[in-house]
Amino acid sequence: MKRTVKNVKNVLWGISVSAFAGVASSCDYLDIVPDNIASIEHAFTDRAHAEAYLYGCYSFLPVFSNPNVYPGFFGGDEVWLFDGVNTDVMNTRMWRIAKGEQNTSTPIANYWASKQDSYNIDGGIALFTAISDLNIFLEKIDLPGDLPVDERNRWIAEAQFLKAYYHFWLLRCYGPVPILDVNLSISTDPELVQVYRRPVDEVADYIVQTLDSAIVDLPYTVNYATDLGRPTKAIAAAVKAQTLALTASPLFNGNEYYVEHNLTGEGGVPLFPVNTEPDRAKWERAATAIKEAIQHADTAGHYLFDLNETDITSGGLVSQAIINATQVRAAVTEHWNDEIIWGQLPSSNPNMIQRISYPPFSEANKTSDLLMCNAPPLHIVEQFYSKNGVPIDEDKDLNRFADRYELKEREASETEHQDYISNNFQTLRLHFDREPRFYGAITFDGSLYVGGGSFETFGTTLFKANTLGGLIHDRHSTTGYLARKMVSVRTSMISAATAPTYTRYAFPVIRLADLYLLYAEALNEAYGATGDADGTTDPNSPYTWLNLVRKRSAIPTTGTAWRDHAVNSGYYTSQDGLRNIIRQERLNEFAFEGVRFWDLRRWKWSETYLNQPVKGLNIYGETAEEFNQVQEVYRPSFEQKDYLWPLRYENLLKNKNIQQNPGW
Q1: What DSSP line would sit under 402-431, residue for residue?
Q2: Does some domain include residue 135?
Q3: What are phi and psi of 431, to 5 degrees?
Q4: E-strand spans in 422-474?
Q5: Which residues of 288-326 are buried (b: 16+ CB within 10 A; e: fewer)?
């Protein structure tokens, strides 16, 4: 029997923010001392008021799908904007992080904040206000007399989840942070309000323990009509897994930079782990947690989305090549499909990620709505595998793509690329013979666009100067490419004179493939490259979870790809080699989903990628020869201090117990 994609509306994320959200926040140090007691008591007079208060606590969650406020899109090197991009409808503040403009006076994306401390300035979120509000909720939730016990227990679990998640968010941004488990009394001595940062591992343990408590009373599934987006056991277990994977990763496990800086907290306790070599036991613990998360996801009915198992491809009329290329794109954009463990459907700017990525197909719609600026640099284009499932500079059958910057024409008689590249079109050799995910993720000059409302070819994309997708002063691709993946196939162009009709979808905060590849990473780090490199059935082998993800997009298994097609044919058999293979797999699988930004940080790879020139094609070129010349777009700079956010200078003045992060 075919599994069909669930397409159900979610009402939670569109709910208006409660009038009581943040009502109890006033302390300048961290919002841990409540005020306005009368308003707080009123917020818990009955079930309805308490529920409104809880919804207000949800409102502090990051808007994961909005590049205006989420650093995962523009804060790294995965796409690149340009000075002068249309700022009437989008904000480029997060791009300033990638350009090296983070600072201590007004930190960009200031999450170390309360509502009295730059709330929502430069894209920040008042997370200490959020945690304080949740503490109040947990203190007062016994007050409503009309709240059933089972519902109260579930709401408590939801509040615990949110509290843990907000601490997790702070941990990966700032490293050691205060643990705010309870609020202090309004009569607390001011000296006691000046809390200390806690060690990284202690914060992680607190997050894990809080999530473990929440999992007990969270459901396996939620009501598709009313509750999608609220936490389940699988969501909480996945965040627990991410927390332990973060602290097991090189950023916090064997990082000599933090050991040398010796940042200390209360009583002189080191705030960063003191080991200068990786602690394998941390990966073993992470592997156990990831396994549990996968088991919870399996019990809840999550599976790797597969277009081959659905009836959405026009009854078999769509070619297998298009299906293979669109697999991961659909796993992201098919509304509430069963691969999505945690999705978010925000009420603000839900279509921004599509507006900045959709190419024009007429002069009229070119200027009506499209921003056309979500531009992958050349190193992202080159990052995807060859058709043989290995990095392009490893493919011995294709001469390591030594001719990648030469022009090649897709002739009408050549059928291998007939669904990917326009007939008789000259484009770079780089765009031929690539893995299916490349064609589902990257829009290039001469590519055939799948979408426009169906899983079929819609038109040819053009980016040369004086063509449909060419240069407009405030809306264009700065590299000659656009990120296709985040545009729903169902987003349609009703007429050539109008803007697209955007199909809204639940943005995947966590999907099952993330857990699979995280598990492959943890198993390799803890136990090495063990098992059958071509297998998909041994749960204890990292190859199994890697191959399951590759198989979905018709990519050869790890063993077959490297053994048969790579210059370094034995690379996949070592722990070091497999580590890099798994990492590149994550970069390809989650391209443009906001995941790379965090992965590069926890692997300590940002210093490599963000100290290299950003390159693209010559967008001023009018001919194929002129356009397909490699150009340097920008030269970013990344320092060791940039791995963690700086604390705002004013915060340090207010709390003598808090120290600045290393290097700032």
Answers
A1: TTTTSEEEE-TT--TTTTTB-TTEEEEGGG
A2: no
A3: -90, 0
A4: 425-428, 442-443, 448-450, 457-460
A5: ebbbbbbebbeebebebbbbeebebbeeeebeebbbbbb
Is residue 97, in this structure, part of any structural domain at all? Answer: no
Hey, is 217 helix, strand or coil? helix
- The three-point CA angle 163-515-168 to 5° equals 20
Alpha-carbon distance 59 to 115, whole Å? 13
| Exposure class string for 534-569: b at 16+ Cβ within 10 A, else e | eeeeeeebbbbbbbbbbebbbbbbbbbbbbebbeee
Highest mean pLDDT among 171-180, 307-316, 488-497: 171-180
The helix/strand/coil state of 306 is: coil
In angstroms, the Cα distances linking 441 to 107, 343, 461 are: 32, 20, 14
Residue 409 domain flag? yes
- pLDDT tens digits along 610-624: 999 999 999 999 999
Query: Confidence band (pLDDT; 50, 70, 90) for 370?
Result: confident
Q: What is the pLDDT, as a whole number, of residue 15?
A: 24
Query: In angstroms, how far is CA 559 from the centroid of its own chain?
Result: 28
Q: How many domains does the chain have?
A: 1
Q: What dihedral angle (degrees, nearest 10) is formed by the CA atoms of 623, 624, 625, 628? A: 120
Q: What predicted TM-score, i.e. pTM, was given to this entire model? A: 0.93
Burial classification of residue 202, based on how many CB atoms lie within 10 Å of its CB (0-12 exposed, 13-18 middle, 19 or more buried): middle
In a domain? residue 474: yes
Residue whose structure tokens are 């990917």: 420
Residue 89: the pLDDT is 78
Residue 274, burial from CB neighbour count under 10 angstroms (0-12, 13-18, 19+): exposed
Structural domain that includes position 338: 314-508
259 Ramachandran zone, left/alpha/beta (phi>0; psi -120 to 50): alpha
